[in-house]
Amino acid sequence: EVQLVESGGGLIQPGGSLKLSCAASGFSVSRNYMNWVRQAPGKGLEWVSVFYTGGSTYYADSVKGRFTISRDDSKNTLYLQMDSLRADDTAVYYCARGIDFWSAYFDLWGRGTLVTVSS
Amino acid sequence: DIQMTQSPSSLSASVGDRVTITCRASQGIGNFLAWYQQKPGRVPQLLIYGASTLQSGVPSRFSGSGSGTDFTLTISSLQPEDVATFYCQKYNSAPFTFGPGTKVDVK
Lengths: 119, 107
What we know:
Radius of gyration of chain A: 13 Å
Strand content of chain B: over 45%
Oligomer: heterodimer
Shape of chain A: globular
Order of helices and strands of chain B: EEEEEEEEEE
Number of strands of chain A: 11
Structural class of chain A: mainly beta
Strand order of the largest sheet of chain B: 2-10-9-4-5-6
Number of helices of chain A: 0
Helix content of chain A: under 10%
Order of helices and strands of chain A: EEEEEEEEEEE
């Protein structure tokens, strides 16, 4: 079955760190544009970061310098290392698949993992 | 960076009504525009890509149009199961920005 399963969310204090995982099955993360998208409680969707097939990455300004996206092809898993967490990082974090440059829209989403930043 | 706007922010319509949502990009993005539907408590689902191509399995009452900076999502005959928030997204290049969303309710 083609799916994405996120894990690693939880309650963390401001200034802390957390690493999210997104395990893919049924396809190879290395052959797709893999993204993180977040949604704060009651708010809209915010794109966070992309890991391109060639290995380059891109970040939203709101997380640049604090979050790091990475990929382990041997585990077919995408990661998001989140450092210097703030209260406004509280959100459900989704992993989402894009196909390639011409089809970078997100055709597959995980169920998400909730990150709560609070003291 | 290119900004995405949507209008209206919310709407309420009757079953069977034709519903139109507008999305605007601050700069031209060709037809690199996708629409997503997020039902309450659910994960977003891809509805339309390439501004007008329906994703497999999406009912034909949904349609999309536009190119450049102005895009439209139309529901030809609103159904109770269409209650959701709809988001547009640019995907010509990162950042893959979403619009703020349009919440659709059924009267």
